[in-house]
Give the backbone structure.
Amino acid sequence: MTGGARKLEGAVAVITGAASGIGAGIARAFAVEGAVVVVVDLVAPAYVEAQLAELSSHGHEAVFVRADIADESSVAAMAEEVLERVGHVDILVNNAGIFTQALVEDLPTADWDRVLAVNLRGTFLCTKAFLGRMLDAGSGRIINIASQLGQIGGAEVAHYAASKAGVIGFTKSLAREVAARGVLVNAIAPGPIHTPLLDTETEEWRSAKLAELPIGRFGEVDEVTPTAVLLASADGSYYVGQTLGPNGGDVML
Protein backbone atom coordinates (compact mmCIF):
# COMPACT_ATOMS: atom_id res chain seq x y z
CA MET A 1 0.00 0.00 0.00
CA THR A 2 1.37 3.38 -0.88
CA GLY A 3 0.22 6.73 0.44
CA GLY A 4 -2.41 7.49 3.04
CA ALA A 5 -3.03 6.11 6.47
CA ARG A 6 -3.36 2.36 6.75
CA LYS A 7 -6.75 1.28 8.05
CA LEU A 8 -5.53 -1.33 10.54
CA GLU A 9 -2.20 0.12 11.61
CA GLY A 10 -0.95 -1.70 14.70
CA ALA A 11 -4.13 -3.69 15.28
CA VAL A 12 -3.59 -7.34 16.21
CA ALA A 13 -5.66 -9.76 14.12
CA VAL A 14 -6.02 -13.49 14.70
CA ILE A 15 -7.23 -15.34 11.59
CA THR A 16 -8.06 -19.04 11.75
CA GLY A 17 -7.56 -21.22 8.70
CA ALA A 18 -5.24 -18.53 7.38
CA ALA A 19 -2.68 -20.74 5.68
CA SER A 20 -4.68 -20.92 2.45
CA GLY A 21 -7.77 -19.75 0.59
CA ILE A 22 -9.89 -16.89 1.88
CA GLY A 23 -8.07 -16.90 5.21
CA ALA A 24 -4.72 -16.34 3.55
CA GLY A 25 -6.21 -13.57 1.46
CA ILE A 26 -7.62 -11.83 4.52
CA ALA A 27 -4.28 -12.20 6.30
CA ARG A 28 -2.50 -10.49 3.43
CA ALA A 29 -5.11 -7.72 3.13
CA PHE A 30 -4.85 -7.03 6.85
CA ALA A 31 -1.05 -6.98 6.75
CA VAL A 32 -1.12 -4.54 3.84
CA GLU A 33 -3.37 -2.31 5.95
CA GLY A 34 -0.87 -2.38 8.82
CA ALA A 35 -2.15 -5.14 11.09
CA VAL A 36 -0.08 -7.52 13.15
CA VAL A 37 -1.31 -10.84 11.77
CA VAL A 38 -1.51 -14.10 13.68
CA VAL A 39 -2.00 -17.07 11.36
CA VAL A 40 -3.78 -19.96 13.07
CA ASP A 41 -3.97 -23.25 11.20
CA LEU A 42 -3.44 -26.98 11.57
CA VAL A 43 -0.60 -27.15 9.02
CA ALA A 44 3.05 -27.72 9.85
CA PRO A 45 5.10 -24.57 10.54
CA ALA A 46 7.21 -25.12 7.42
CA TYR A 47 4.08 -24.76 5.29
CA VAL A 48 3.64 -21.11 6.27
CA GLU A 49 7.27 -19.92 6.29
CA ALA A 50 7.03 -18.09 2.97
CA GLN A 51 3.62 -16.70 3.85
CA LEU A 52 4.85 -15.31 7.17
CA ALA A 53 7.80 -13.67 5.45
CA GLU A 54 5.49 -12.01 2.93
CA LEU A 55 3.10 -10.84 5.63
CA SER A 56 5.96 -9.48 7.72
CA SER A 57 7.28 -7.51 4.75
CA HIS A 58 4.39 -5.08 5.17
CA GLY A 59 5.78 -3.71 8.41
CA HIS A 60 4.84 -5.93 11.36
CA GLU A 61 6.12 -9.40 12.18
CA ALA A 62 3.51 -12.06 11.49
CA VAL A 63 3.07 -14.96 13.88
CA PHE A 64 1.99 -18.57 13.37
CA VAL A 65 0.25 -20.66 16.01
CA ARG A 66 -0.77 -24.23 15.23
CA ALA A 67 -4.16 -25.39 16.51
CA ASP A 68 -7.09 -27.69 15.88
CA ILE A 69 -9.99 -25.30 16.37
CA ALA A 70 -12.48 -28.12 16.93
CA ASP A 71 -10.58 -29.22 20.04
CA GLU A 72 -11.22 -27.16 23.18
CA SER A 73 -7.84 -27.82 24.79
CA SER A 74 -6.02 -27.00 21.56
CA VAL A 75 -7.91 -23.70 21.27
CA ALA A 76 -7.13 -22.83 24.89
CA ALA A 77 -3.43 -23.50 24.30
CA MET A 78 -3.55 -21.47 21.08
CA ALA A 79 -5.15 -18.48 22.81
CA GLU A 80 -2.59 -18.61 25.61
CA GLU A 81 0.29 -18.67 23.13
CA VAL A 82 -1.21 -15.86 21.07
CA LEU A 83 -1.59 -13.62 24.11
CA GLU A 84 1.93 -14.44 25.29
CA ARG A 85 3.39 -13.53 21.91
CA VAL A 86 1.34 -10.48 20.89
CA GLY A 87 -0.20 -9.29 24.15
CA HIS A 88 -3.77 -8.72 23.09
CA VAL A 89 -6.19 -9.28 20.20
CA ASP A 90 -8.20 -6.54 18.50
CA ILE A 91 -9.70 -8.57 15.64
CA LEU A 92 -10.71 -12.22 15.40
CA VAL A 93 -11.60 -13.74 12.05
CA ASN A 94 -13.20 -17.17 12.39
CA ASN A 95 -12.45 -18.45 8.92
CA ALA A 96 -11.30 -22.07 9.33
CA GLY A 97 -13.68 -24.54 7.77
CA ILE A 98 -13.94 -27.91 6.08
CA PHE A 99 -16.24 -29.36 3.46
CA THR A 100 -17.43 -32.75 2.32
CA GLN A 101 -20.17 -33.64 -0.12
CA ALA A 102 -22.93 -36.27 0.04
CA LEU A 103 -26.67 -36.65 -0.16
CA VAL A 104 -28.26 -36.76 3.31
CA GLU A 105 -29.30 -40.37 2.73
CA ASP A 106 -25.66 -41.31 2.21
CA LEU A 107 -24.04 -38.83 4.61
CA PRO A 108 -21.81 -40.54 7.19
CA THR A 109 -22.54 -39.37 10.70
CA ALA A 110 -18.81 -38.88 11.18
CA ASP A 111 -18.78 -36.34 8.32
CA TRP A 112 -21.73 -34.47 9.83
CA ASP A 113 -20.01 -34.36 13.21
CA ARG A 114 -16.62 -33.27 11.87
CA VAL A 115 -18.00 -30.50 9.64
CA LEU A 116 -20.14 -29.12 12.46
CA ALA A 117 -17.23 -29.45 14.89
CA VAL A 118 -14.83 -27.40 12.79
CA ASN A 119 -17.17 -24.91 11.14
CA LEU A 120 -19.54 -24.14 14.02
CA ARG A 121 -18.05 -25.45 17.26
CA GLY A 122 -14.65 -24.08 16.25
CA THR A 123 -16.15 -20.64 15.69
CA PHE A 124 -17.68 -20.76 19.16
CA LEU A 125 -14.51 -22.02 20.85
CA CYS A 126 -12.23 -19.43 19.28
CA THR A 127 -14.69 -16.65 19.98
CA LYS A 128 -15.01 -17.64 23.63
CA ALA A 129 -11.22 -17.85 23.96
CA PHE A 130 -10.76 -14.15 23.10
CA LEU A 131 -14.12 -12.54 23.83
CA GLY A 132 -13.59 -11.96 27.54
CA ARG A 133 -10.47 -9.88 26.98
CA MET A 134 -12.19 -7.88 24.24
CA LEU A 135 -15.05 -7.13 26.60
CA ASP A 136 -12.61 -6.15 29.36
CA ALA A 137 -10.96 -3.77 26.90
CA GLY A 138 -14.30 -2.41 25.74
CA SER A 139 -13.44 -2.94 22.08
CA GLY A 140 -12.96 -5.62 19.46
CA ARG A 141 -14.10 -6.95 16.12
CA ILE A 142 -15.20 -10.50 15.42
CA ILE A 143 -15.75 -11.53 11.81
CA ASN A 144 -17.21 -14.97 11.15
CA ILE A 145 -16.85 -16.47 7.69
CA ALA A 146 -20.14 -18.13 6.80
CA SER A 147 -21.31 -19.07 3.29
CA GLN A 148 -24.15 -18.27 0.97
CA LEU A 149 -25.06 -21.96 1.33
CA GLY A 150 -25.96 -21.18 4.93
CA GLN A 151 -28.58 -18.79 3.55
CA ILE A 152 -30.04 -20.82 0.67
CA GLY A 153 -28.91 -24.40 1.24
CA GLY A 154 -27.67 -26.74 -1.44
CA ALA A 155 -28.06 -30.32 -2.57
CA GLU A 156 -25.36 -32.67 -1.26
CA VAL A 157 -24.11 -30.08 1.25
CA ALA A 158 -26.74 -30.19 4.00
CA HIS A 159 -24.17 -30.59 6.77
CA TYR A 160 -22.00 -27.77 5.46
CA ALA A 161 -25.03 -25.50 4.94
CA ALA A 162 -26.28 -26.31 8.43
CA SER A 163 -22.91 -25.42 9.93
CA LYS A 164 -22.79 -22.10 8.11
CA ALA A 165 -26.42 -21.27 8.94
CA GLY A 166 -25.40 -21.89 12.53
CA VAL A 167 -22.52 -19.44 12.14
CA ILE A 168 -24.95 -16.79 10.91
CA GLY A 169 -27.32 -17.38 13.82
CA PHE A 170 -24.41 -17.33 16.27
CA THR A 171 -23.20 -14.06 14.77
CA LYS A 172 -26.56 -12.33 15.21
CA SER A 173 -27.04 -13.59 18.75
CA LEU A 174 -23.54 -12.69 19.91
CA ALA A 175 -23.81 -9.26 18.29
CA ARG A 176 -26.90 -8.56 20.39
CA GLU A 177 -25.03 -9.58 23.54
CA VAL A 178 -21.85 -7.56 23.11
CA ALA A 179 -22.33 -4.58 20.78
CA ALA A 180 -23.19 -2.19 23.62
CA ARG A 181 -19.96 -3.29 25.34
CA GLY A 182 -17.78 -2.29 22.40
CA VAL A 183 -17.35 -5.57 20.51
CA LEU A 184 -18.81 -5.61 17.02
CA VAL A 185 -19.66 -9.01 15.53
CA ASN A 186 -20.49 -9.57 11.87
CA ALA A 187 -20.31 -12.29 9.25
CA ILE A 188 -19.28 -12.61 5.63
CA ALA A 189 -21.12 -15.16 3.49
CA PRO A 190 -19.12 -15.55 0.28
CA GLY A 191 -20.47 -17.31 -2.76
CA PRO A 192 -18.35 -19.94 -4.52
CA ILE A 193 -14.79 -18.64 -4.55
CA HIS A 194 -11.75 -20.11 -6.28
CA THR A 195 -10.03 -21.75 -3.28
CA PRO A 196 -8.85 -25.26 -2.34
CA LEU A 197 -12.27 -25.73 -0.70
CA LEU A 198 -14.01 -25.26 -4.04
CA ASP A 199 -11.70 -27.86 -5.52
CA THR A 200 -13.12 -30.48 -3.15
CA GLU A 201 -16.57 -30.18 -4.75
CA THR A 202 -17.45 -32.42 -7.67
CA GLU A 203 -17.28 -31.16 -11.23
CA GLU A 204 -21.01 -31.75 -11.55
CA TRP A 205 -21.71 -29.59 -8.50
CA ARG A 206 -19.43 -26.82 -9.72
CA SER A 207 -21.02 -26.82 -13.17
CA ALA A 208 -24.54 -26.68 -11.74
CA LYS A 209 -23.62 -23.87 -9.34
CA LEU A 210 -21.90 -21.89 -12.08
CA ALA A 211 -25.07 -22.06 -14.17
CA GLU A 212 -27.04 -20.56 -11.26
CA LEU A 213 -24.82 -17.52 -10.75
CA PRO A 214 -26.14 -14.31 -12.33
CA ILE A 215 -22.59 -13.02 -12.70
CA GLY A 216 -21.65 -16.14 -14.66
CA ARG A 217 -18.37 -16.93 -12.90
CA PHE A 218 -16.89 -17.99 -9.60
CA GLY A 219 -15.35 -15.32 -7.41
CA GLU A 220 -11.76 -14.64 -6.48
CA VAL A 221 -10.34 -14.32 -2.98
CA ASP A 222 -9.44 -10.68 -3.59
CA GLU A 223 -13.14 -9.99 -4.16
CA VAL A 224 -13.91 -11.09 -0.59
CA THR A 225 -11.04 -9.52 1.34
CA PRO A 226 -12.18 -5.87 1.05
CA THR A 227 -15.33 -6.80 2.97
CA ALA A 228 -13.18 -8.16 5.80
CA VAL A 229 -11.10 -4.97 5.85
CA LEU A 230 -14.30 -2.92 6.01
CA LEU A 231 -15.67 -4.86 8.99
CA ALA A 232 -12.32 -4.82 10.82
CA SER A 233 -11.65 -1.12 10.37
CA ALA A 234 -13.16 2.16 11.54
CA ASP A 235 -15.16 2.20 8.29
CA GLY A 236 -17.25 -0.67 9.69
CA SER A 237 -18.17 1.00 12.97
CA TYR A 238 -21.95 0.84 12.43
CA TYR A 239 -22.17 -2.75 11.23
CA VAL A 240 -23.65 -4.97 13.95
CA GLY A 241 -24.81 -8.55 13.45
CA GLN A 242 -24.76 -8.23 9.68
CA THR A 243 -24.06 -10.90 7.08
CA LEU A 244 -22.40 -9.33 4.05
CA GLY A 245 -22.53 -11.29 0.83
CA PRO A 246 -19.85 -11.12 -1.88
CA ASN A 247 -21.64 -13.93 -3.73
CA GLY A 248 -22.00 -13.03 -7.42
CA GLY A 249 -25.76 -12.71 -7.07
CA ASP A 250 -26.38 -16.23 -5.72
CA VAL A 251 -28.24 -14.59 -2.82
CA MET A 252 -30.08 -11.30 -3.20
CA LEU A 253 -31.59 -9.72 -0.10
About this structure: The longest helix spans residues 109-137. The beta strands are 12-16, 36-41, 63-66, 91-94, 140-145, 183-188, 243-244. DSSP finds nine helices and seven strands in the chain. The chain has one domain: 12-244.
